[in-house]
Structures are given as structure tokens and as C-alpha cells.
Design brief:
The protein is of the alpha/beta class. The chain is built from seven helices and eleven strands. Helix 1 packs across helix 2. It is globular.
């Protein structure tokens, strides 16, 4: 078994993986002030020491030394930290590859390997990202929009009389009758229209109407029910991609 660690802007996900199967998964909030000791205590509480290796993907580089130190201390192993020069199983056609989020590359690699065809990946994370891999395995680029939760938080911070949304749900109607329902209607249905519109534009731009659209990220299941363009929901796509990258680059 290997331990896959995905360090994101909002959460850090720890997953034990055997082959392609996720055995167990835990998450913690991403904090800039977290220490190596806190990392080690968290890992030690949930995971035994008998793992074969560790792989890390991170979009928050300042946290890498702390988690590396924690892994060395608890497991006695130095983790394999993903970088842009590794093998991903797909060709990457991007002008600024060093600035392309590793999470986006990993999702693209995992999705193409898993579905074996041209694919659009939508990640409902801190940002909502759209990425496209061609049928012959070339990552062709994508788009980034503000995430659902940070958009709602910005509305709360900038509009004095509007409340903060803690949990999202699908409203029964677009023409809502209350403030919380109105915000949910605007955010959820608005993002559904954004997603469907972006997918349609990607298909127009690529000339490929047979693409599969895969959603992942924290709100993927909620958005699946309101987006007409989502074909598959895969909440463990990043972990699957991490395990794939490990097999391609294992020491």
C-alpha cells in the first residue's frame, strides 16, 4: 500500500491506496501555520507505519518541508513529491507548464488513463477548473473560474445585508422566496449554467462532441444533479491520478 497525500488550498487529503483501490481516506483543513509535529500527530492517529511508499502532490509549496519532515519522522520514509518534470502518461501542451497546477495535471492524467478517451475534467475545488485531454492523450489546456464557496463568501463579505452560506443545497425553484434560498438559487443554478456553457464551448472549440465530462472535487455530487453536461462523478479522481503517477515514476 502507498500513502497518497494531496495538499490543496482548502484541504489536505490523505489516502491509503492498494493498486487502484482507495482503502481509507482522511482529510484536514489546510493551514499555513501548521507544524511538522501536527502533521505527524494527525498521520499517526489514522495510519499504521507499514506502508511501502509515500507520494505527495502539493499546490501549497510552503507546506512541503513540514509534511516531508513528518513522514520521515513517523514512517522513516522520504516522500516522492510530484514535480512538472515527471512522467504523467499524457503529453502536456501548455505555454507555462511550470505554472500549471499539479492537481490539474494529475486529474487529467488520471481521467485519461481511466476512461481511455477524450475527456473534460471539472474540479469543483477552491477554484472551479476545466481541463481537456484529447482522444490521443494530449493535455490541451483549460480554464479557471472562482470556486463556488469562495464566490458565495465574497458575496457575504461585500454585501452588508446578505448572510453567510454554510451549506449549499439545490433549491426547488429559481424564483426563490427567501434570502438563503435566493443565494443558493443564484449560486447553484448560476454555476450549473456556467458549467454547461463552458463544456459546450470546449466541445465547439475542439470539434469533438463525443467527449466524456468527469466531475470531481468537494461539490461534485451536488452539481451533478443540476448540470446537464456532467457524465461521470469521480470524487477520488485526484487520488487515482496520484497512484498512477507513482507507478510511472516509482523509485
Amino acid at each position: 500500500m502507498i500513502l497518497c497525500i494531496d495538499i490543496g488550498n482548502t484541504n489536505i487529503v490523505f489516502a491509503l491506496v492498494k493498486g487502484d483501490k482507495v482503502i481509507s481516506k482522511k482529510r484536514m483543513d489546510t493551514r499555513w501555520d501548521i507544524t511538522a509535529i501536527e502533521f505527524e500527530m494527525f498521520i499517526g492517529f489514522f495510519f499504521k507505519r507499514d506502508i511501502s511508499d509515500i507520494i505527495i502532490s502539493s499546490v501549497v509549496p510552503p507546506l512541503n518541508p513540514m509534511i516531508k519532515k513528518a513522514c520521515l519522522s513517523y514512517f522513516g520514509k522520504s516522500p516522492l513529491i510530484i514535480n512538472h518534470k515527471m512522467e504523467f502518461g499524457i503529453s502536456i501542451l501548455y505555454d507555462e507548464i511550470e505554472r500549471l497546477g499539479l492537481d490539474r495535471i494529475i486529474n487529467a492524467a488520471g481521467a485519461f488513463n481511466k476512461y481511455k478517451k477524450g475527456v473534460i475534467i471539472i474540479d469543483f475545488g477552491t477554484a472551479t477548473t476545466f481541463d481537456y485531454v484529447s482522444p490521443d492523450g494530449r493535455y490541451m489546456g483549460g480554464a479557471i473560474s472562482p470556486g463556488i464557496r469562495i464566490s458565495a463568501d465574497a458575496l457575504f463579505k461585500k454585501a452588508y445585508q446578505l448572510p453567510k452560506i454554510k451549506d449549499f443545497w439545490i433549491p426547488k425553484r429559481v424564483l426563490a422566496k427567501g434570502t438563503l434560498e435566493s443565494i443558493n438559487a443564484g449560486v447553484i443554478f448560476g454555476y450549473a449554467s456556467l458549467v454547461d456553457g463552458m463544456v459546450n464551448r470546449i466541445k465547439q472549440e475542439t470539434g469533438d462532441r463525443n467527449l466524456i465530462t468527469v466531475a470531481t472535487g468537494g461539490l461534485c455530487f451536488l452539481m451533478k444533479d443540476v448540470c446537464k453536461s456532467i457524465d461521470e462523478v469521480d470524487e477520488d479522481l485526484t487520488i487515482y491520478g496520484l497512484a498512477l503517477v507513482y507507478r510511472l515514476n516509482k523509485r
